[in-house]
Design a protein that fits this description.
Elements lengths: L15 E3 L2 E3 L3 E6 L6 E7 L2 H19 L3 H17 L1 H12 L3 H21 L6 E3 L11 E8 L2 E5 L5 H15 L3 E4 L6 H16 L7 E3 L4 H9 L3 E7 L2 H11 L3 E5 L5 E4 L5 H11 L13 E5 L3 H11 L21 H16 L3 E4 L3 E2 L2 E2 L2 E4 L6 H4 L6 E7 L2 H9 L3 E2 L1 E5 L3 H10 L4 E4 L15 E2 L2 E2 L4 H7 L1 E8 L3
Parallel strand pairs: 7-8, 7-10, 8-9, 10-11, 12-13, 12-20, 13-18, 17-18, 20-21
Antiparallel strand pairs: 1-2, 3-4, 5-6, 6-24, 11-23, 14-17, 15-16, 19-22
Helix pairs in contact: 1-7, 2-4, 2-5, 2-6, 3-4, 4-5, 5-15, 9-10
């Protein structure tokens, strides 16, 4: 791959990394820069036959990868981080080209990717078990018991388009740390960063006498994905994407272990005593990053009635700070969505909300191919712009009498990933931690705050299982109990 659409993109090997080498006999499809529709590269399109080949190779690699020493797994992870760091500008350019996210957002994604690989390396030496007091029962008198953690086996990781490098890393790095080979399926629109990452991992694995099949990549349509997640040789499926697709994967994959990082419509609560300037800043930072295409971006703002008008005035006065334009421009804050169909869907949701009585305070239209940063006031709770995941630079605002009522509104969602509360009251903060039915409660910060080492995941329709290297490694290992009666 050469320079396209003004990008200086790295060369990416043709084909798919399957088995010990690369399969080049694949269909191909253009990879498009969302800002102007120009073709920035060509990606391989896998088939069910490619999925079968990867499954066969992955199953054969379970024992060799599982026998890699702690030192070897740690060295692979650290060497991948080092190689990624040396190619930082290449990856940032590649992410801008295939996702259309702003340069600033892609730089953040890349920095978090580096951290994820180094954090996974740190966790390798912390995979351990413990002794069990078998003689707590009479039948265990004189016996010795302990458990260890063993790799779960072949992993299939399916990633979304909005953070392709980071999401793939959250599948691949913990799998390697746990001693599991992994097959990664990137989103059809954004395969390039994942393919380049896999090439780097496989090259480094060879240096440490690890099989190339430690990571494979298969692209393709939903039928390809279904083949991967339903195979009995697969021990665990880790999926990041929409709730609808994730729920179908859970049904298809049963009884294999499934980790689901799904959608949400994250809420930000503003209490009567909140610092309104900081709350406004949080909405501007947290509602529009990744062009709004983030599962924990601010979508719902629930503000206590006494401060509603002042908050709305301060927010509308600053919404113009979010410049719309070319994501290659460092000053751009919001750029086009991943494709035109997403744009049209969002516009229809905005129109429906307005027809149902919501007021458009700002935006609601397309500007330079992008959905302009949009603020909606008094959106009925039954409207999709409120109750479903809009995945766009759109924030809906409603008011309630007090914080207790706000928490009830937050919990009425079928989703439960992250929610945040702006308050000066320690009592309110702890009440939020106890009452909000979500995977993460954030106080006085954006709901999109995520440290890549914390347990990250949701409840209800937002999924099951937790990411973050330590917690993903636990998910991708199983306990093995040793029960010994000495002679």
């Amino acid at each position: 791959m050469g320079s396209n659409a003004g990008f200086a993109l790295p060369e990416i090997r043709s084909g798919l990394p399957i088995g010990p080498g690369w399969v080049t006999a694949t269909d191909t499809a253009p990879v498009v820069f969302p800002y102007d529709g120009s073709v920035v590269g060509t990606g391989p399109v896998g088939s069910v036959e490619h999925a079968e080949a990867a499954l066969q190779a992955g199953a054969a690699a379970v024992k060799p990868v599982g026998k890699l020493t702690t030192a070897a797994r740690r060295a692979i992870l650290l060497d991948v981080e080092s190689e990624l760091r040396a190619r930082s500008e290449q990856f940032v350019e590649l992410l801008i080209a295939e996702t259309g996210k702003t340069r600033g957002d892609c730089e953040v994604e890349f920095a978090r990717t580096l951290f994820t690989w180094s954090a996974a390396a740190e966790e390798v030496a912390h995979i351990h078990g413990e002794t069990v007091a078998l003689d707590a029962q009479d039948s265990g008198a004189g016996m010795v018991g302990f458990w260890t953690r063993k790799p779960i086996g072949l992993v299939v990781g399916v990633a979304g388009f909005n953070g392709p490098l980071l999401l793939a890393s959250h599948k691949i790095a913990p799998s390697i740390a746990a001693g599991c080979p992994v097959i990664c399926k990137p989103a059809p629109a954004t395969p390039l960063a994942t393919l380049l990452l896999a090439e780097i991992v496989r090259t480094i694995a060879a240096r440490h006498a690890a099989p190339a099949e430690i990571v494979q990549v298969v692209t393709g349509d939903p039928e390809v994905g279904r083949r991967l997640v339903t195979d009995p040789r697969v021990a665990a499926v880790s999926f990041t994407g929409s709730a609808e697709v994730g729920h179908q994967i859970a049904r298809d994959a049963a009884p294999r272990k499934v980790l689901l990082e799904l959608g949400s419509n994250a809420a930000l609560v503003i209490d009567v005593d909140a610092d309104l300037d900081k709350a406004v800043d949080a909405v501007l930072r947290g509602g529009f990053y990744f062009n709004g295409q983030a599962c924990i971006a601010v979508q719902r703002v629930i503000v206590c009635e006494p401060v509603r008008d002042e908050f709305v005035d301060r927010l509308t006065a600053r919404i113009g700070e979010l410049t719309v334009g070319d994501p290659r421009d460092p000053g751009t804050r919001v750029a086009p969505l991943i494709n035109e169909s997403s744009t049209q869907r969002v516009l229809s949701w905005i129109a429906s909300a307005e027809a149902a009585g919501a007021k458009i305070l700002h935006g609601g239209r397309v500007l330079d191919r992008a959905v302009e940063p949009t603020l909606l006031l008094d959106v009925p709770e039954t409207e999709k712009a409120w109750c479903e995941e809009i995945f766009a630079p759109v924030v809906a605002i409603r008011s309630v009498p007090d914080a207790a009522a706000a928490f009830e509104v937050v919990n009425r969602s079928r989703y439960g990933l992250h929610a945040s509360v702006f308050t000066r009251s320690l009592a309110t903060a702890f009440h939020a931690v106890e009452e909000l039915d979500v995977g993460g409660v954030v106080i006085n910060e954006v709901p999109g705050f995520r440290s890549d080492i914390m347990p990250y995941g949701g409840v209800k329709d937002s999924g099951i299982g937790r990411e973050g290297p330590r917690f993903a490694i636990e998910e991708l290992t199983v306990t093995r109990m040793a029960i010994i009666r000495p002679e």
